[in-house]
């Protein structure tokens, strides 16, 4: 960390206030070319001291705002580090995340400490400013009295000059008083210059220390983040995935597929692969139509006789079918099997893709998988259909070509 140093100039001697702030040559009254009653130099010095006091206040405000910002930033970092999750992570990545949260919290704590240092600097500057204010007011009150006395003496000197012969003694006293005023002015100017020098030196050191604080903060931040980077170098994806599989594995074998058993199967062939067949029809295979019913939880086969003989009698279908396995009856399939004269070549033959329950008197209820005959396709999406001698309206999007 660099230290504040005092620079000195060897090429140019320092200027003194006592030689630079005398009266202006354009003041109203003058004695032998010098402006005796003009206070422009004194006013300039006083104004400079007031400006320096304002600069001290500005420096205080800067440090106060920076302290508040550092404190808020540090608290926010601590809050972020404490609220951050990461509890679901495991192994090396979790360790990296935890050290990151720890370092962020350390950085936040360091910023809060830096805020306290800045507040102490503000108090020092405020104490210094108040001390200079008291010294300035003390000498300023003296100088105001001297200035008033100087003006009064000057007037008396002018009057004495007019009546020199009569009031020669008063003129001597006035000159003696003027000498005292000159000595007091020189002493006051030395004090003012010393105050200004102290103020400039103090503010320069404060700014220097302020820069050193933040230089050290940058080094600390880099050290904290370097710890995170070192731990991240050991983070391995394969290691974390293997750790998770070893800790949470639920099994390495998939479940066996469900064997399909047809509801209508009368005899099971070895090469049927789960398909159901009916005997009869001259050894020819019956046409099968598959539909899915949500009540069954599996596929159902609906058989009709060979479509080449559309007028052949359908296979008998009882109202309640029960096999050795205790299967319940299939709702919706009875109507599909009981249609007497539905041909696959008929363009008006449709199958119900979804179940629909009639809500009006002119509507027709259909069950999923039923074959119905469409008499008229309305443009509004409602089709006129016939089923088991009943006629009514059915939504067209509920039907599909058989």
Characterize this entry briefly:
The protein has 402 residues and is α+β, with helices and mostly antiparallel strands. The chain is built from 5 helices and 7 strands; from the N terminus they run ααααββαβββββ.
Word description of this protein:
The structure is a single chain. With 402 residues, the chain is α+β, with helices and mostly antiparallel strands. It has two domains: 17-244, Arfaptin homology (AH) domain/BAR domain (Substrate Binding Domain Of Dnak, Chain:A, Domain 2, Up-down Bundle), CATH 1.20.1270; 291-305 and 331-401, SH3 type barrels (Roll), CATH 2.30.30.40. Helix content is 50%, strand content 10%. The protein is built from five helices and seven strands; from the N terminus they run H-H-H-H-E-E-H-E-E-E-E-E. It has a five-stranded antiparallel beta sheet. The longest helix has 72 residues, at 91-162. It is elongated, with a radius of gyration of 54 Å. It starts with 39 loop residues before the first helix and ends with a strand. Mean pLDDT is 75; it is low at 28-33 and 266-342. GO terms for molecular function: actin filament binding. One of its GO terms (cellular component) is cytoplasm. InterPro entries: AH/BAR_dom_sf, F_BAR_dom, FCH_dom, PSTPIP1_SH3, SH3-like_dom_sf, SH3_domain.
